[in-house]
Amino acid sequence: MEGLGWGLFVVAFILLVWILKCINILPEYERAVVYRLGTLQQQEKTKLFLIMWPIDKIRARISLRVVTWDVPPQDVITRDNVSLKVNAVVYFRVIDALRAFNEVQNYQYAIEQLAQTTLRAVLGEVELDDLLSQREKLNVRLQTILDEHTEPWGIKVTKVEVKQVDLPQEMQRAIARQAEAERERRAKIINADGEFQASAKLAEAAAILQKQPMTITLRYLQTLAELGTERSTTIVFPLPVDLLAALIPKLAKPPAATE
User: Fold this and answer.
1) Could you report the per-residue pLDDT of 158-170, keeping only the tens digit for each?
2) Model-level pTM?
């Protein structure tokens, strides 16, 4: 009886260990990839599940959370032959754990290498001005290319951002000179436009004065009043404009010849 009791205890202990091996608990954000006798099970396991150990084996536990990877600085030569260093950040997540594990050996390493080569290829096709001014379009293009290549792996690239562009010192000085010349050009255009508008207004004022000669006298008296208030030591003697208008033709007429 004592031997039978020990035998039952051993059987119960083995059964308990087997049950513990069969019961598995996963966090909500993880998925388990299970193989049965070397064959991939076509359904990923979630949360609390049972397997037939040792026939079934969990080969991987894959997280479905978004992964943020910082692309190291890449040497890029733009279309207009400008050498620079560019780094970016890639956001991706696994949407199919079975394909992510079974289709590629190391999906994270594969995405990292693909992101680096795609970044160099895409930015090498654009000019420096487009890289600096149209970054949003380039981000969308990079995200589309990466997403197309990683979709068979069960991975979704959610976003790609070009983070920093390091320009050589010579190129920075050239861009600064270009920006300064552009500002000077705009200043000259604004100044010329102001002169044009001022001349147009003066032409309109001259036309009005020509139609109403009395306005010249009013303007003359207004100028005299301003001079009198600004300079108290100045003596202003007003002279009628009509008198000047009558005297100017006589002064301009040549004297008559005497016999």
Assistant:
1) 889 888 887 777 7
2) 0.60
pLDDT tens per residue across span 182-206: 788 888 888 888 888 888 887 887 7
User: Tens digits of per-residue pLDDT, 34-43?
Assistant: 777 777 676 6
Buried/exposed code over 37-61 (b: 16+ C-beta within 10 A; e: otherwise):
eeeeeeebbeeebebebeebeeebe
**CA 233 from centre of chain:** 65
What phi, psi does 227 have (nearest 5°)? -65, -35
Domain boundaries in the chain? 19-62, 67-172, 210-249
Q: Which CATH superfamily is domain 67-172 in?
A: Band 7 domain (3.30.479.30)
The answer to whether the CB of 166 falls within 8 A of the CB of 73 is yes
- Residue 193 tokens read as 């436009």
Angle at 234 between CA 228 and CA 240, to 5 degrees: 65
Question: Is the omega angle on the peptide bond into residue 54 within 30 degrees of 0, that is, cis?
Answer: yes
